[in-house]
Amino acid sequence: MNKKELAKYISLNSGLDLIKSKEVIDVIKDIIKVELRSDGNISIRKFGKFCIKKTKERKYYNLWQKVVSTSPAKRTFSFIPSVNLLEDNLSNVVITAPLSSPNESVHNW
Predict the structure, then answer these.
(1) Is residue 9 within a helix (H) or strand (E), and if so which, with residue range?
(2) What gap in Å lies between CA 15 and CA 8, rounded to an integer?
(3) Which of 31, 36, 57, 64 is the least buried, fewest Cβ under 10 Å from its Cβ?
């Protein structure tokens, strides 16, 4: 689902027109951006949690220069779905393991 489809769904179910639905999506998106930029978390009960996770510096070996270097610490975006969301809406999702070779079969987990 993209923004246009989401706005159409909101307008059909809430009685708002399509333009107002797009504005609502933009406002929610802006709120999430501002809060995450200030290292805050956004928790929505029975939906999930948007948060920023900080990773450590990592050492790696540069094959071209033949030296050990360090990559800087990073901030990554993360969404953690709530247990209710997983139980209610995602119970039909089938997760398959990626194939490592063409002869390997697909296993449902």
Answers:
(1) helix 3-14
(2) 10
(3) 64
Q: What share of the chain is helix, strand, coil (3-state, %, to 5)?
A: 35, 25, 40
What is the rounded (10 degree) CA torsion for 60, 99, 79, 16?
140
pTM for this prediction: 0.60
What is the per-residue pLDDT across 46-103, written as a single tens digit (0 to 9) for each?
A: 888 888 888 899 999 999 999 999 999 988 888 888 888 777 765 555 444 343 444 4
Question: How many residues in the chain?
Answer: 109
∠ CA(42), CA(43), CA(45), 5° rounding?
155
**Does the domain formed by 40-109 have CATH 4.10.520.10?**
yes
